[in-house]
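Target chain:
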Amino acid sequence: MDLQLDGTTALVTGAASGIGRAVARALAAEGVRVALLDRDAAALRDAAGEAGIDPVLLAADVTDEQQVAAAVDAGVRALGGLDAVVCCAGISGPVGTPIEETPLEVWNRVLAVNVTGAFLVLKHAMPALRESAAGSVVLLASDSAVVASPGMAPYAASKAALVQFGRALSVDLAGTGVRVNAVSPSIVDTPMSRGDLGAAAFDEPAFPVQSADEVAAHVAYLLSPRSRAVNGTTLLSDFGYTARSGFPA
């Protein structure tokens, strides 16, 4: 299927690693001119080299509004406009940590990166998106928005907030031509997941695992004019786990 993305422009955050890096590759392969944003400038250069492209590279911390504003402005000017934003920047925070042992600064950091970061990027990208003929936003959430793993309350809360932020934003933008959707995958084989679960857990996993490239394909479709009727929704890619009843039959 031709996704009709050739010649469009996109800003991808968290683009130095994991899903963000895979999204950068996928969009570049579709002919999208991309601006890649991450706080790790060296890893961004590696990502660009891996994709075999010459993107706009933007080093910024998504929790710092001044840095975000400057980076988004530079990206829009370099691309000559902006048709899409993909917010992939995120952290997992504590894993297996009871809430009473979770420091406030850790809670705040997870919410700052995963939710406030997306808010700041879109706040400053929105003027350019509104000028696009068919603007589109995709937020990288998680199945943790609807199910929870023990000891990961900050992460689950942040992903649920991100999903509802996207829904609310789609309502605010009704009639503007800018769509907002989210992708909520279950476990994805990324450096972050390997850090959380241990690399050995992925050798012969006892759970279904997606690749970052598979998630990137979902993102590309949601950015595409092919999905123009899809707005304010979440693509939950969890191998059908949440569809199962707990009824013992």
Remarks:
- Residues 183 and 207 are 19 Å apart (CA to CA).
